[in-house]
Design a protein that fits this description.
By secondary structure, the protein is mainly β. A 6-stranded mixed beta sheet has the order 8-1-2-11-10-9. Strands 3-6-7-5-4 form a 5-stranded mixed beta sheet. Strand 6 and strand 7 form a beta hairpin. The longest helix is centred in the N-terminal third of the chain and has 10 residues. It is globular. The N and C termini lie far apart (34 Å).
C-alpha cells in the first residue's frame, strides 16, 4: 500500500482540493486547479461530424466552448437533464476552455496524500483510463478524473 500511495503523491500534492460530483450513483472529482466556473446547462449548439461524446458548443461571454458529455465519454447511458444537471467549465494552462456535463455537483473536498490510492492495474477493474486515482473520503470512494486524458484522448488533442 505504501508504494501505491507514494506513486500517487508524486502526481498530486498533499491537501489537493477537488470538486466532487455525481454521474449516476458514482462519485467523481476534478482538481480545483482546472475549474473555471460551474454553470447551468444552456442551449448547446450541435456541430456536425464531431465525436459522439462531444455534445456541441456553448457561448460563454463571447467565447465558444466545446461541451463533453461525461456519460457518453464513460459509455454510460444518457439521461434527461434536470435542475441539478450542470456544466463544469474547465480551463487549462493555455487558457483553452472545455465544459463537461455532470449530473450534479456535490462539494469541494481536501484530499491528503493518505486519502489517495493508485487505481488497480487489472484491465477489468481499471478499464476506465480516465481515472487518475481513487480518493477515500468520508467512507466513500471518489474517482479522481484525469482531466487531460478526458479531454484529449483519441482526438489527436482537443486542448
Amino acid at each position: 500500500m505504501a508504494e501505491s500511495t507514494a506513486a500517487v503523491t508524486e502526481a498530486l500534492p498533499d491537501n489537493t482540493e477537488m470538486l466532487s460530483f455525481n454521474i449516476g450513483d458514482a462519485i467523481y472529482a476534478i482538481e480545483i486547479k482546472y475549474i473555471k466556473e460551474i454553470i447551468e446547462v444552456e442551449q448547446i449548439t450541435v456541430v456536425p461530424k464531431i465525436p459522439d461524446h462531444i455534445k456541441g458548443v456553448i457561448n460563454i461571454r463571447g467565447k465558444v466552448v466545446p461541451v463533453i458529455s461525461v456519460r457518453r465519454r464513460f459509455d454510460i447511458e444518457e439521461i434527461d437533464f434536470d435542475s441539478r444537471t450542470c456544466i463544469i467549465v474547465l480551463e487549462f494552462e493555455d487558457e483553452e476552455q472545455v465544459g463537461i456535463i455532470v449530473d450534479r455537483v456535490q462539494e469541494v473536498v481536501d484530499a491528503k496524500a493518505t486519502d489517495l490510492s493508485k487505481t488497480p492495474d487489472s484491465k477489468n477493474v481499471n478499464a476506465n483510463k480516465y481515472i487518475k486515482s481513487i480518493v477515500h473520503f468520508d467512507n466513500n470512494i471518489v474517482l479522481l478524473i484525469d482531466c487531460i486524458k478526458l479531454i484529449n484522448d483519441d482526438r489527436g488533442g482537443m486542448i
